[in-house]
Amino acid sequence: MKLSDMVAQHGYQPSDLGEIHEARLYERRNVDGALELLCVQKIGNVFRVDRQALAEFPGLGILPLGEGVANKIIPRDQLEGYLDATLAPAIAA
Q1: pLDDT per residue over 78-90, tens digit each?
Q2: How many domains is the chain built from?
Q3: CA-based, 20 to 30 A from 86: which of 20, 54, 73, 79?
């Protein structure tokens, strides 16, 4: 399955917010209003995954929410399972 199809299943679409050399940038708007950015970069037989939720505050700009995922290296054959497991929106209790 193509990467864009994998992430689209979780509500992500290609982002126009910027370009990253040799990588794909995606975004989704969560039900709580947070903007979530996802960057996936192919490096040989592995993928680097970065993800960060952002909140927009009037007068303050855009601020990160939580820790996010930084520089997570996933083998090619495990990428779809990793994305399925980690990109599902959080369910409020």
Answers
A1: 999 999 999 876 5
A2: 1
A3: 20
Cβ atoms 15, 88 nearer than 8 A: no
Tell me the pLDDT tens digit for each residue of 18-66.
888 889 999 999 888 899 999 999 999 999 999 999 998 889 888 999 8
For the chain, how many residues are written?
A: 93
> To the nearest 10°, the Cα dihedral for 53, 57, 61, 66?
-30
CA distance 2 to 18: 21
Distances (CA, A) of 33 to 7, 62, 85: 19, 12, 22
Q: Is the pLDDT of residue 3 over 90?
A: no
Instruction: Return the amino acid letter for 39.
Output: C
Look at residue 16 and tell me if it is in a domain.
Answer: yes
In three-state secondary structure terms, 92 is coil
The predicted model scores a pTM of 0.86
Sign of CA dihedral 85, 53, 67, 76: positive
The domain in which residue 62 lies consists of 3-86
